[in-house]
Amino acid sequence: MENLQQLLQANQSWQNTIHSKDPKYFTKLAAGQQPKILWFGCADSRTSPEIITATELGNFFVHRNVGNIIYQNDNSMHAVLDYGVRFLNIKQIVICGHTQCGAVGAVLQGDKLDGAIKTWLGDIYTVHATYQARLAKFSQHEQYDKLVRLNVLEQLKHLLNIKLVQDFLNSNDLVVTGAVFNLATGLVENLVECSKEHINSSLIDSAINELLK
Ligand SMILES: [Zn+2]
Fold it and tell me: Engineering a disulfide at 181: which of 83, 98, 102, 141 sits with its beta carbon 3.0 to 4.6 angstroms away?
């Protein structure tokens, strides 16, 4: 898919196919959304949540950025979280990283970055610095895979530090999950699942220690 004309033709074809199967599909789509999952993912072009879970439109409320990072000062992230949890009443949040993540790879390999992308990846530099010594015993390939997972688990900690998330974990059966999409197998791996009993527990640290054994 290389140009706008091709995109528009593909859209027309998709619309025709859906409409011929279910003439009311787009009327129902326009009536409103009730997504079940709030998805924090990477901007990577290979990680669309709807495609990798074969899910219809309307099931995911999505925030994606380079490296699936949760920054406490990211107003866009907070707006998605706030709207998703408070107004759409979503009870399942997923942070999903992915193998072969360019953001993680650039940090691990010490690529010479500058500008906005270097600033944005600051938290992944911090995650790498935190675990660099414990990662050293693994091969480069293993370090890459493990740093992807460590990044997801650290971002999960950031999410669990947000008061809104803590409040909804406590009062509203919210569940927060860390996962990784493995590009080489096509499978999503569940790393850890946190509900209200895990707010102050060492569940995530245990998952980190397991990764670094
Ligand atoms: Zn990525």
Answer: 98
Q: Is 166 exposed, middle or buried (0-12, 13-18, 19+ CB in 10 A)?
A: middle
Burial class (CB in 10 A: 0-12, 13-18, 19+), 153: buried
Domain that holds residue 193: 35-212
- Going by pLDDT thresholds of 50, 70 and 90, the confidence category of residue 101 is very high
DSSP state of 196: G
* 64 shares its domain with 39: yes
Q: What predicted TM-score, i.e. pTM, was given to this entire model?
A: 0.95
Asked whether residue 3 falls in the same domain as residue 48, the answer is no
**CATH number, residue 166:** 3.40.1050.10
> Residue 172 pLDDT > 90, yes or no?
no
Same domain, 19 and 82: no
- How many structural domains comprise the chain? 2
- What is the Cα–Cα distance from 147 to 153, expressed in whole angstroms? 10
Residue 149 CA to ligand 1 center (angstroms) comes to 12
The pLDDT of residue 99 is 98
CA of 11 to the centre of ligand 1 (A): 26
Calculate mean pLDDT across residues 9-26.
97
Query: Does 85 lie in the same domain as 27?
Result: no
129 and 187 fall within a common domain: yes
Asked whether residue 71 carries a pLDDT value surpassing 80, the answer given is yes
Would you state the pLDDT for residue 201? Answer: 77
Ligand 1 centroid to residue 62 C-alpha, Å? 15
